[in-house]
Amino acid sequence: MGLCVNMRWQQGSAGAFRAGVGALLLGLSLAQSIPPQAACRAALAQQSLPENQYHETAEGDSGGFLSAFVQSFLNTVQPNPFPKDLVLNVVQDMNQVLSNQDLAKEALVYEVGFLVCAAIGILYIVLMPIVGFFLACCRCCGNCGGKMYQKQTSSIHCRRRSLYWSAFITTVIILAGNICMFRSNQGLKVTVDETAEEISNTLENINIFLSAVPQEVYHVVNESYKTIQEVTRNLDTIGPKLGKEIQEQFAGPLEPALSSVRLLDEDTENTGVQVNKLNSSLAQLQSSVDRLQANVTAIRNRINQTFSNPNCVGCQNLLPELQKLDTLDMTITFPSLNELQSAVDEVVKVNLTSKIEEVEDYFDSIPQRVTNGTEDVVQNSKQLLDNIEAQISQIAGDLPLPALNDISTTLDGLQRDIDRLTPQVEKGERIRWGVCVALCCLVLLVVVCNLLGLVLGPLGLSPNKDPTKRSGTADCAGTFFMMGAGFSFLFSWLFMILVLVLFLVGGNVYTLVCRPWNNGQLLQLIDTPGLIPGLNLSASLGLKSEISISDIYRDCVANKPLWTTLHLNELIDLEDLLNVSKYTDQIEQFFESTDIPLSSFTLLSPEVKNQLSSFSDKTKDLDSVDITQQLNNITRINLNTTADKLDLLATFQSNDGVKKELQNQARDLRQIQADIETTIIPQMEKLNSTIAGLRSIAEKINGTVGEVLSNVGAAQDFLNTNTTQIVKTESRKFVDCQLGYFIVYADWANLTITLHLGRCGPVADVVDSAERLLCLNLVESLNAFWFSLGWCMIFFIPSIIFSIKLAKYYRKMKYSDVFEENLHMHSIPRAQMKFT
Fold first, then answer.
1. Neighbours of 836 (CB within 10 A)
2. What phi, psi does 642 have (nearest 5°)?
3. In which element (H, E) is residue 227 found?
4. Helix pair angle (681-755, 625-635), 10° resolution
5. First-to-last CA distance in the chain?
6. What is the per-residue pLDDT across 170-221, written as a single tens digit (0 to 9) for each?
7. C-beta of residue 767 within 8 angstroms of C-beta of residue 209
8. pLDDT higher for 1 or 394?
9. What is the DSSP letter of 812?
10. What is the DSSP string of 228-276?
């Protein structure tokens, strides 16, 4: 007889377990979700891709507010769209530009705006020194304002003021242009000074990106190792994990059965204790009763002898009282107690405690039995996990990661060249900056001369004074005006040469490089097949579809991953790499040959059930009414009444001997009655208490035995019908749990590779940084410089005119001329003097 669990794995449950663990290794091939299992620990949280720290690049704003003016001017000069076909023809064959008249004509037509501006510049360069030369000669001959005579008229003051403010406005405009020259020159210097660092930061950023891509790939692969290691650990502990789940399922029906058996064992032990206690009390009471019976019999015999004495007067009247002593019922019998004792002994022999311990030991051994039964299949599964690990690792091998190393090597060489040339560039930049500062100062010299003339002129001029008597301050003002005009003639044509050269260079760079770069046409030009020999990204990457630099840049601006940008789905079958379904047949074969036998147990044998039923019947048949009645009979005995009658009888006796005997006998009866009250009655009360306790336990045992038989029967039926299904279900839960780990990883890996790995925003930043460096910084600053310088040169022309004319209003004249407002001399002709 024994309490145990019928846990034999049927062939059907073993097959389910095999299929389940087979599905465990097919996790990467499944796309459906699995309902969460309470027994399954949450899948490992996959770590996000590491964040890369890139160097910040400066924004380009060196051109300042002039950028809009320069760009508007250049867009007006060159309104034509980007000549893609013309550039392609020129690039493909540089020699045909001169020989092919149509191509040369097309280039000239495209550059007509620049040619017109260049013609104007050349005209300026040619005419300015010629005009200056002839003007100087003319003035030396006393003409063209060279004569130191100023005719005084009524409008002279108005003309002077008009010329003054015209010269002032022109000077301010030139000063503004000169300030822009200084600023653009300084901006160009700052840009060139920062160029080496910016290029280094840009190259470092692209190197960081190139090195980050393999790290991200290996990060994804390493996360698969963690998942495989987790599944491997679970397979190593399949006994404790799966066994525990089986135990928990069995614990539901078994726990009530075991609890009721434990309770029955306790009640049986308590019943045995109460039965032994009752036997002891009965034996003690019976001994006291037997002694009481002997004492009563002895006194009765003595009383009987006394009553037989002829000298006893009236003794015959108490013979009925003497007969009551013969009818005292002191019998104590408890026949059902022996039967209960026998039943208790039979249950104790079963040793329910040891049987419970056997069941618990076997129950605790389930994990080890599962471990022993799955040892071979776990080992084979681990080998397949190694194959899966190698397959997932192939992702890194299929990606063109070595090409990134080649690019990094090229960039490192470029960085070394930049470091080598940086000192020479800085030296040349210092020279350029000094030359441009000198040019700015020369222009400033003209501005200063004009400003000095504008300041000193009004300070030293007395409007009503004779022109020959003007002050030295006013004369200095006129001299400064003439100096400004002279410097303008002297340097303006040379400055215009520089403006023309920088205009043609910077303007064409803007229209042919920066503007198409900004609107994407330059990248489209680079994408033209054959333009750059050997540049075919699709062929280089082995792609079926066409991929262009423009497409890559557009995707990188949106910070898309490399999977989308480079169409890596054409190179790598990610679904195949993350699919291990080809191992299904091998896994099924492993588990088809695996069985986990567990020995069978019966919770309660028929013999034990019969003994428990008999025990329950015996406790139910326990009858305490008879013994209670017997005890009540003893309780009702009252020998004091008989003793009182004997004392009364003794008073009527004349024979002293008889009287004394009767008194002694009455005293003995009172002693026996006192013994009953002090000894027998407490023992009977104790016996009654023991009987009540036994009766209470007996009533409880009836319910406990019924509960044991009911619970054990239900548990036995549950195990007989559900053990196979429980093993099958828990095995499936265990396998689904492991499957969940792979599904979580597969989804994460697919999402990471296709949406996050190698986000190429830094590549677009590099291109944008190059554009900012070249166009927004260098070209814009350069264009701002020539635009400011050309601005000054253009306004040199009115400045020269206004300065020369205004100088005569301040310079001291050699010949006087007086104008009187109310004097009319029509009748007298004025003498005409001719100066030769």
1. 3
2. -65, -40
3. helix 156-236
4. 140
5. 157
6. 999 999 999 999 998 888 888 888 878 888 888 888 888 888 777 777 777 7
7. no
8. 394
9. P
10. HHHHHHHHHTHHHHHHHHHHHHHHHHHHHHHHHHHHHHHHHHHHHHHHH
